[in-house]
C-alpha cells in the first residue's frame, strides 16, 4: 500500500472572495523505500506540496479539494494536534537553506537534545549517546565537539548533515527534502544526496525529493512528477521521463539546462515566464501553451487531461508523440580568442588577517595564492571551485574591492595594483562587476532608470532626459520593455532583476565584466535566457568577462577558457573543452564527477568526489 | 566566552576614561562661566570686599582655569568632591547617602518597565491580527504619550489619595529605624532581618517606581513585538514547526531568545534615560535621592554638588551600558566568535 497518496489534491489562495488555484488535481502514490521527485521551475508549486504535507500553508492558502493520505489517513482533515505529533516523528523535513534552518542562538547540542526529547525515542539522560550515534551515521566527524558549536560556526554542508541527522533520528516513515542541495557546493551536493539514499535504504523511508534539477532527479528518484503552474505535466518512472520526455515542458526544461554530455549543445530558450496565480485563473486550455514550441490551436480550447503515454507514464499533452521532435539550437562554437590582452594578473596573492597578535606578526589566511591568468579581448573566462576556494576573493581583487598582498594586476596595459584614486577612476571606466544577488544589489528605492544609469553619476550625471534615454536604450539591449525604466526593483521578477543588474554594469561600455555567480539561484529557463543574452551582447558590442560560477555545466556552455581554483590556488587552466574532456588535476576530476551525468542510465560515480579529501571547513 | 567578555570589559573601561574626562571638563567649564561667585556665597552676606577677595585666594579661584581644573580633577580622582557651599558637609558623603536610594528606585523602575514591556510584547504578538491587538496597541501609545511626572501625579491621586492604598512620600513611614550598612535600604533591612522595615520600604517604592517604569514599557513592548514578527519569518521557526514542536515551545524556546536581542539594546539605552528620569519622580515623591539633592543644589547654585551629581550620572550611565553590552555578548553567540 502506498505510504503517501495524493488524490485529486487542489490547493488555492482565497482572496477577496475568489479562489486562485496554486495546485490543481494532483495525484501520486509513494511506496515505502521509494523516492518521488517533484520537478519544476520556481512557482510551479513544488514547495507548496511540501507545505501541504505538513499543513503549514502560507496565510490565505487552503486545500480546496481532494485528499492527501499518509498511511491511510487524510492529513488534510486530521486533527491538528494529531498531525503535529506525526511531524518530526513519522514525517521529517530537510530544508533548502541549512544554515538558516537552525536556531542561531542555540548550540547544535541544545537543538539536538530538544529534538530527541520531542520525538521521545531515547531516555532523556541518554540523548548524548543517541545524538553522537546519529552524527556518526551521517558521517559528521568530531561529533562531541560539534554539540557545543553554534550553527554559524559550521559550514552549510555540516549544517545540512546535522539536519539530516535530526530528520532520521526518529526513523521517519516519510522524508520530505525541499531542494536540500541547492544552497550547497556541487561536491557536497553529491555526498548529501548519497547520504539521503543511504539512510533511505537503511530505514526503508519513503522520500519526496523536491528539486529544480531534472538531471539530479533522474539519477536518484524512482518516480518523477513534473509540475507546471501547479498542474502535473508528466508523471512516471524517473528514467523514462528523463530519457524520453513526453511533455514538451519536461523536454524544454531538460534542453534549457546546459549539458555535461560528450557533445556540447545549444540551450533551448523557453520564452516568457510561467503564468502566476492570477493568470492561471483566467487561462483556458493548456497552461504551457504560451511557451510551448509544439502548440496547436486545439491546445488553447481545453485543458488537456493526464493521459497514459507508455508503461506507467502519464502526461498532460494532446500530442506527446511530437515532443521528441523538439531540438535544441546548435551550440555557438567557442571563440578561438587571440586578441590583445585586456586584463592580466601575475602572481596575485591575498592574505587576510585572522587574528592580531601583540608583538608578533598577525596570523594570516591566504585566500588567493599566486594567481596568474590573462583575459583577452572578447574572451569569456570561467573561474570554478567550491566555496572557500578563493574565486570570489580573486574577483574582488580584480575589481579593486580588495588590494592584493602581492603580485601585479594590469588592466588594458596599465598597472592598477596600487588602486590609487586615478587608477580607481580608470578601472571604473573599463571594468564593471555584476553581483550575485540582484535582490540585494539593486537599491529598492530607486527606479530602474536611475539604477542602470548609475555609472553616469560618477561621470558627471547628465540631464534627466539623457539618462532616461540611455536607460531605455540599455533596457532594449538586454531585452526588457522600455517602460520598465520607471519601475522599482520590487516590481520585477528574479530574471528581470538580474537583467537590470547586468544592464547597470554595461552602461559605461566597459571592456571587462566580472560576473560573480550571476545565474545561480535562478530557474534553468531564466538561466538559459541570461546566458543567451551574454553571448548575444558579446557579439553585438564586444566585451571580455571573468565568469565566476560553481556550476560546471554553465561554465562549459558559456566560457572559452576555464580556471579551476582549489584552496586559493589555480590548479588547472585551459580551453574549456580540453579541461572538461581530459582533466589533469585530481580536484578537477572530483568536481566533474560530482555533477550528475546527462544520461540517466549512466552510473553516477560519486565516490570520486567523496574520496578526495575536500574537507568541509569547520 | 569569558575571555571575550573580559576583553570587551577591558576595552569599554578604557574607552570610558576619555569620555569621563570630557564630561568632567564640560561640567567644570560650564559652571565656571555662570555668573556666580562661590567665594561670596560661602561667606555671610555682610562680608567685606577684602574678605571675599581673601576667600577667593584661599579657594584657589584666582588661579588660571586649567590649573583650577587640574586641582579639582585630582581631588575628584581621590574621591573628594569638595565641600558643599550650602550644606557645609562633604559632597562625597552626600552622594554616598543619596545614590543608593536613587539606584534602588531606578533598578526597580527598570524591572517594572521590563516586566510590563516583555509581557506586553508577548501579549501583543500573541494577539496579532485580532481586534484586541489594535486596542492594546492604542493603549500602549496612550501609555507612551503620558510623561513620567504625570504618571507620578496620577498614581498619587489614585492610590495615595483616593484609595489611600500606598504611601507616597519619603522612603519610610515615621517610626521605622533606617538600618545603615551598605546604604541600600532594601538590602540593609533584609540583612538585618527587619522585615517590617523592608516591607514598609517596598510600599514606599512601589508608586514612584511604577510611575517611572510604566512610561518606559511601551517602547520595549513594541520593539519586542516587531522583532518577534521578524523572527517568525525566519527559516528555523518554520523548521521547528516541521519538527512538530508546539507553538508555545517555539515562542519561548526559539523565537524569544532571538527576539530579545534588539529589545535588550533598547533597554540599555532606556535605562540611561530612566536614570535621568528619577530626578522629577524623586521631587514629586519627596524621595531622598540624588535627584532631590541635585535640584536643591541647582536652586542654591551649589557648584560642588552639581558637578559631583553630574559626574555620578555619567558614571552610572557608562556602567549600565557596559553591563548591557556584556549581557548582549552572553546572549548572542555570533558576536562572541568574531
UniProtKB/TrEMBL annotation, chain A:
CDD domains, A to Z: ABC_NikE_OppD_transporters (cd03257)
Keywords of the record: ATP-binding, Cell inner membrane, Cell membrane, Membrane, Nucleotide-binding, Translocase, Transport
Principal cellular location given in the protein's record: membrane
Residue ranges of domain ABC transporter in the record: 4-254, 353-592
Superkingdom of the organism of origin: Bacteria
InterPro entries: AAA+_ATPase (IPR003593), ABC_Ni/Peptide_Import (IPR050388), ABC_transporter-like_ATP-bd (IPR003439), ABC_transporter-like_CS (IPR017871), Oligopep_ABC_C (IPR013563), P-loop_NTPase (IPR027417)
PROSITE patterns: ABC_TRANSPORTER_1, ABC_TRANSPORTER_2
Subcellular location: Cell inner membrane
Membrane-protein topology: Peripheral membrane protein
GO-annotated molecular function: ATP binding
Pfam family, one: oligo_HPY
Family according to the record: Belongs to the ABC transporter superfamily.
Protein name as annotated: ABC transporter ATP-binding protein
UniProtKB/TrEMBL annotation, chain B:
Keyword set includes ATP-binding: no
Pfam families the UniProt entry points to: BPD_transp_1, BPD_transp_1_N
Stretches assigned to the ABC transmembrane type-1 domain: 99-324
Transmembrane regions listed in the UniProt entry: 12-34, 105-127, 139-163, 196-216, 259-285, 305-331
Keywords: Cell membrane, Membrane, Transmembrane, Transmembrane helix, Transport
Highest taxon above the source species: Bacteria
Membrane topology of this protein: Multi-pass membrane protein
PROSITE patterns per UniProt: ABC_TM1
Main location: membrane
Gene3D superfamilies xrefs: MetI-like
InterPro entries: BPD_transp_1_N, MetI-like, MetI-like_sf
Similarity section: Belongs to the binding-protein-dependent transport system permease family.
PANTHER family given in the database record: DIPEPTIDE TRANSPORT SYSTEM PERMEASE PROTEIN DPPB-RELATED
Entry protein name: ABC transporter permease
Organism: Ollibium composti
Amino acid at each position: 500500500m502506498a505510504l503517501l497518496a495524493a488524490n485529486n489534491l487542489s490547493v488555492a489562495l482565497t482572496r477577496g472572495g475568489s479562489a486562485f488555484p496554486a495546485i490543481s488535481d494532483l495525484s501520486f502514490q509513494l511506496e515505502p523505500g521509494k523516492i518521488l521527485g517533484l520537478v519544476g521551475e520556481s512557482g510551479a508549486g513544488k514547495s507548496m506540496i511540501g507545505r501541504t504535507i505538513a499543513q503549514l500553508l502560507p496565510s490565505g492558502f487552503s486545500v480546496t479539494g481532494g485528499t492527501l493520505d499518509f498511511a491511510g489517513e487524510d492529513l488534510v482533515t486530521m486533527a491538528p494536534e494529531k498531525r503535529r505529533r506525526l511531524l518530526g516523528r513519522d514525517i521529517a523535513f530537510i530544508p533548502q537553506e541549512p544554515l538558516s534552518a537552525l536556531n542561531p542562538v542555540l548550540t547544535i547540542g541544545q537543538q539536538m537534545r530538544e529534538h530527541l526529547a520531542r520525538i521521545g525515542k531515547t531516555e532523556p539522560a541518554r540523548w548524548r549517546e543517541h545524538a553522537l550515534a546519529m552524527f556518526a551515521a551521517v558521517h559528521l566527524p568530531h561529533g562531541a565537539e560539534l554539540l557545543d558549536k553554534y550553527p554559524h560556526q559550521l559550514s552549510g554542508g555540516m549544517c545540512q548533515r546535522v539536519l539530516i541527522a535530526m530528520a532520521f533520528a526518529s526513523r521517519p516513515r516519510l522524508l520530505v527534502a525541499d531542494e536540500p542541495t541547492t544552497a550547497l557546493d556541487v561536491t557536497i551536493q553529491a555526498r548529501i544526496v548519497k547520504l539521503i539514499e543511504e539512510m533511505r535504504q537503511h530505514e526503508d523511508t519513503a522520500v519526496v525529493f523536491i528539486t529544480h534539477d531534472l538531471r539530479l532527479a533522474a539519477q536518484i528518484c524512482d518516480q518523477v512528477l513534473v509540475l507546471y503552474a501547479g498542474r502535473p505535466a508528466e508523471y512516471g518512472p524517473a528514467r523514462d521521463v528523463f530519457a524520453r520526455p513526453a511533455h514538451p515542458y519536461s523536454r524544454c526544461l531538460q534542453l534549457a539546462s546546459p549539458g555535461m554530455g560528450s557533445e556540447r549543445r545549444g540551450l533551448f530558450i523557453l520564452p516568457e515566464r510561467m503564468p502566476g496565480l492570477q493568470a492561471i485563473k483566467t487561462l483556458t486550455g493548456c497552461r504551457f501553451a504560451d511557451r510551448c514550441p509544439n502548440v496547436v490551436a486545439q491546445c488553447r480550447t481545453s485543458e488537456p487531461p493526464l493521459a497514459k503515454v507508455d508503461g506507467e507514464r502519464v502526461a498532460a499533452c494532446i500530442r506527446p508523440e511530437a515532443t521528441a521532435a523538439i531540438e535544441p539550437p546548435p551550440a555557438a562554437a567557442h571563440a578561438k580568442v587571440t586578441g590583445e590582452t585586456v586584463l592580466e594578473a601575475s602572481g596575485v596573492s591575498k592574505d587576510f588577517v585572522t587574528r592580531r597578535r601583540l608583538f608578533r606578526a598577525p596570523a594570516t589566511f591566504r585566500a588567493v595564492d599566486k594567481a596568474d591568468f590573462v583575459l583577452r579581448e572578447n574572451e569569456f573566462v570561467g573561474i570554478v571551485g567550491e566555496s572557500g576556494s578563493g574565486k570570489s576573493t580573486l574577483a574582488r581583487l580584480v575589481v579593486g574591492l580588495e588590494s592584493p598582498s602581492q603580485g601585479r594586476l594590469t588592466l588594458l596595459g596599465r598597472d592598477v595594483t596600487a588602486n590609487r584614486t586615478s587608477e580607481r577612476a580608470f578601472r571604473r571606466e573599463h571594468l564593471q562587476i555584476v553581483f550575485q544577488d540582484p535582490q540585494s544589489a539593486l537599491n529598492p528605492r530607486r527606479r530602474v532608470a536611475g539604477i542602470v544609469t548609475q555609472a553616469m553619476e560618477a561621470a558627471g550625471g547628465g540631464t534627466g532626459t539623457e539618462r532616461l534615454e540611455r536607460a531605455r536604450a540599455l533596457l532594449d539591449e538586454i531585452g526588457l520593455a522600455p517602460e520598465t525604466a520607471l519601475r522599482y526593483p520590487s516590481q520585477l521578477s528574479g530574471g528581470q532583476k538580474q537583467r537590470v543588474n547586468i544592464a547597470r554594469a554595461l552602461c559605461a561600455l566597459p571592456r571587462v565584466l566580472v560576473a560573480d555567480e550571476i545565474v545561480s539561484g535562478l530557474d534553468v529557463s531564466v538561466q538559459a535566457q541570461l546566458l543567451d543574452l551574454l553571448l548575444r551582447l558579446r557579439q553585438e558590442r564586444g566585451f571580455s568577462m571573468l565568469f565566476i560560477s560553481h556550476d560546471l555545466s554553465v561554465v562549459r556552455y558559456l566560457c572559452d577558457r576555464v580556471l579551476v581554483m582549489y584552496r586559493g590556488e589555480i590548479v588547472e587552466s585551459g580551453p574549456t573543452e580540453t579541461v572538461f574532456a581530459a582533466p589533469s588535476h585530481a580536484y578537477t576530476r572530483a568536481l566533474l564527477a560530482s555533477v550528475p551525468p546527462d544520461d540517466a542510465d549512466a552510473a553516477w560515480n560519486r565516490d570520486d568526489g567523496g574520496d578526495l579529501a575536500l574537507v568541509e571547513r569547520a | 566566552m569569558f575571555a571575550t567578555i573580559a576583553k570587551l570589559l577591558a576595552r569599554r573601561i578604557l574607552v570610558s576614561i576619555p569620555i569621563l574626562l570630557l564630561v568632567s571638563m564640560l561640567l567644570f567649564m560650564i559652571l565656571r562661566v555662570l555668573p556666580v561667585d562661590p567665594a561670596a556665597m560661602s561667606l555671610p552676606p555682610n562680608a567685606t570686599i577684602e574678605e571675599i577677595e581673601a576667600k577667593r585666594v584661599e579657594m584657589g579661584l584666582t588661579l588660571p582655569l586649567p590649573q583650577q581644573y587640574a586641582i579639582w580633577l585630582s581631588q575628584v580622582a581621590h574621591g573628594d568632591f569638595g565641600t558643599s557651599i550650602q550644606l557645609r558637609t562633604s559632597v562625597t558623603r552626600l552622594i554616598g547617602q543619596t545614590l543608593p536610594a536613587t539606584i534602588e528606585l531606578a533598578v526597580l523602575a527598570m524591572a517594572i518597565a521590563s516586566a510590563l514591556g516583555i509581557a506586553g510584547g508577548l501579549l501583543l504578538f500573541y494577539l496579532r491580527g485580532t481586534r484586541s491587538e489594535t486596542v492594546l496597541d492604542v493603549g500602549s501609545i496612550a501609555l507612551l504619550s503620558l510623561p513620567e511626572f504625570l504618571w507620578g501625579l496620577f498614581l498619587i491621586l489614585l492610590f495615595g489619595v483616593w484609595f489611600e492604598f500606598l504611601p507616597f512620600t519619603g522612603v519610610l513611614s515615621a517610626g521605622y529605624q533606617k538600618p545603615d550598612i551598605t546604604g541600600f535600604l532594601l538590602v540593609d533591612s533584609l540583612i538585618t532581618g527587619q522585615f517590617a522595615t523592608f516591607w514598609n520600604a517596598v510600599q514606599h517604592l512601589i508608586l514612584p517606581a511604577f510611575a517611572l517604569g510604566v512610561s518606559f514599557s511601551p517602547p520595549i513592548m513594541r520593539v519586542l513585538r516587531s522583532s518577534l514578527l521578524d523572527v517568525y519569518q525566519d527559516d528555523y521557526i518554520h523548521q521547528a514547526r516541521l519538527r512538530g514542536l508546539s507553538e508555545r515551545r517555539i515562542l519561548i524556546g526559539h523565537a524569544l531568545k532571538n527576539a530579545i536581542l534588539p529589545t535588550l539594546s533598547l533597554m540599555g539605552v532606556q535605562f540611561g534615560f530612566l536614570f535621568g528620569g528619577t530626578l522629577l519622580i524623586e521631587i514629586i515623591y519627596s524621595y531622598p535621592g540624588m535627584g532631590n539633592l541635585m535640584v536643591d543644589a541647582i536652586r542654591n547654585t551649589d557648584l560642588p554638588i552639581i558637578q559631583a551629581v553630574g559626574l555620578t550620572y555619567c558614571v552610572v550611565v557608562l556602567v549600565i551600558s557596559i553591563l548591557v553590552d556584556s549581557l548582549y555578548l552572553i546572549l548572542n553567540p555570533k558576536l562572541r566568535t568574531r
